[in-house]
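Re: that chain you flagged

S.,

Sorry for the slow reply, it's been a week of failed gels. I finally had a moment to sit down with the sequence you sent. For the record, here it is as I used it:
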Amino acid sequence: MAEKQLRVTFQPHGRSVYVLPGTKVVEAAARAGLTIDTPCGGAGTCGKCRVHVTAGACPPTDAEREHLSDGDLDAGWRLACQSSICAESIIAVPESSIFADQHQILTEARAAAAEEVLPAVRKQYVELPEPALDDAQADLLRVERAIGPVTVGLDVLKELPGRLRDGGFRGTAVVADSELVDFEPGDTTGQCAGVAFDVGTTTIAAALLDLNTGEELAVASSVNPQVRYGDDVLSRIRRSGASADGGQELRQAAVGGLAELLARLCRDAGVEPGRVYEAAVAGNTTMEHLLCGLPVDALGEVPFVPVHGRALTLRARALGLNAHPRASAYVMPVIGGFVGGDVVAGMLATRLDAGETPAMLVDIGTNGEIVLAHDGKLWAASTAAGPAFEGARISCGMRAAAGAVEKVLFDGERLHCGVIGGEEPAGLCGSGLIDA
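Prediction finished late last night. Pasting the C-alpha cells below so you have them in one place:
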C-alpha cells in the first residue's frame, strides 16, 4: 500500500516537497534543490548541518544531544543529517549550513555575470523636459536624448505620445538590446524579470529570474505534455509526420506546458506577467524544432539534419507565453541532430571550453549526451539513455509518473514505499529501483 507523504517547506527559499515519514532532513532538502553542508558525510560527528525546525520537529537523537544545547533543542534546532521527518514540517536553513563550495560558485557566477553576461533587457527611469516653443523636438528624439539611440516599432510609436503626456514626461524606458519595447508610467526599474526553460523529452523545467540582480525568484517543473504522443524523440518525429496536424499537435502540447509553468512561476514569485521581458529556451534538437513548429522529418533519418543550427530570436508570444507583449524569446543554437541546445547551454554554464585540463560534461536524460573538452577542442556524442532510467527493460519498470514507487526506506523491520501521487503502486521508476 502507498503511504501518505508529508509536506516539508524550506525557508527562506519557500520550496516545498513531499517525502515519506522517516526521510532524513538532508535528503528532503536535496529534493528541494538545497545542498546542505555535511563535512562528516552524514555521520553526525561534525555538527555543521544545523537547521531550525520551526514546525514538526522530531525528538532529538543522541548525536544531536551531543552537538546542540538543551536550549537549542527545545527551540527546534536539529542536525539535518540526523533528524528525520515525522510530521508536516517547516524548516529554516541558515546560510552557514548551505554547502560552502556551492554557495561560493554561485556568488562567483553572479559577479561574472554582472560584468560579462549583461541581460539583453535594461530599464531606465527618465524625467524629460516637456516640449516648449524653444524645444519642439520629436517625442522619440526627446527620449533618445536621455537613453541613447534605439530602434522602435510602429506599435510602440503609437503608444509613446500618450504615455509621455499622461506621465508628465516621466517614466521608465524598457530597451531590449537596442530596441525600445515600452515606455512605462512611473519608476518600474525594480521590476524586470526573465524566464529560462529547459525543454526535455520527458520533463520541462523553468526558472524565473530577476534580471537586475540575477536572483532566482521561483522554480518549477512538469512532465512534458508531449509524452502522450510518445516517450522518445523518434516516436514524436513519427507522430509529427503521421498526419497533416501531427506537428501542430506536438507544438501546441509543448507551448501549453511552457505557458502553464510561466503562470505558476509568476504566481509563486508575485510577479506580474507583463513584467517578464525575456525568455531563454534550451532543449534537444527535436524538442526545439517541435516547439518552434519546424519540420522534423529529416531528424528521423540518416544523417539526421536539423533545420537550423544558429540561435533563433522570436517574440515570446509566438511561443504562447503570457509575458510582456514585446518580450523576446531566445532559442539556443544546436550542434546536430541529437546534440541540441540543452548541451550548448550546459557548455556555456560550465565554461567547458575555458578549462586548462581535459574535462567532460555528461547530461543524462531521456536523451543522453557527453561532451569532451581537450586541447582546445570539443567532441560531442549522444545516445538514448531514458529507457535505463524509466525501467524499459525492468519487469515492473515505469516512467516517474503517478503510481510509480519513487522512494523506498527500510527501518530495520519493514519497508516503506513512497508512490508518486499517493496512488496504488503500479511499478518502479529509476529512483525507486535504486533505493530498492
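What I noticed first: DSSP finds twelve helices and 21 strands in the chain.

Talk soon,
D.
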